[in-house]
Write a structure and sequence with these properties.
Structural class: mainly alpha
Largest sheet: none
Radius of gyration: 43 Å
Strand content: under 5%
Distance between the termini: 73 Å
Shape: elongated
């Protein structure tokens, strides 16, 4: 692309560019001045006036004051001391059993993970599946080799 532009520049350099006449330059300057003066005199309708800016600033300040006032009204005046707060309620018995079960399950999985990291597993992974199925299954009346498919 740069070569194409350079070729066009060489072609243009062959031809002389005539200088504009003095009357053409004067007409261009006159037209530019008239356009600039017309744009100064004529204000666009979308321009902000000073009073609109002042009103917008006052509205924002009033909104900020209102939000601050409402925030003070809706929050307590002094935060409660840590000793005055209600103690954390104890867990119900059913929740304690669930927590214990989850903790035991986590310990079992940690033991299984430690044991399986040292074992040499084949590509099929069938023995790992059976071991995981047995560890996760609460139903103990299935045979150890049975993976639950019928």
């Amino acid at each position: 692309m740069h070569e194409e532009i350079a070729d066009h520049e060489k072609w243009l350099a062959v031809y002389s560019t005539p200088a504009p006449s003095a009357s053409a330059v004067a007409r261009a300057k006159s037209a530019a001045r008239e356009a600039m003066l017309a744009s100064r005199v004529r204000r666009p309708r979308t321009a902000w006036r000073v009073w609109q800016g002042v009103a917008a600033s006052a509205a924002i300040i009033a909104l900020a004051v209102f939000v601050g006032y409402r925030a003070v009204q809706t929050t307590p005046s002094a935060p409660l001391a840590v000793a005055e707060r209600d103690p954390i309620p104890s867990l119900p018995e059913a929740s304690r059993e669930g927590t214990t079960r989850v903790t035991d399950f986590d310990d079992d999985l940690t033991d299984l993970e430690t044991w399986s990291a040292q074992a040499n597993w084949g590509m099929s992974g069938a023995s790992l599946f059976e071991l995981m199925d047995e560890a996760l299954d609460d139903d103990t009346d299935r045979a150890p080799g049975d993976n639950g498919s019928s």
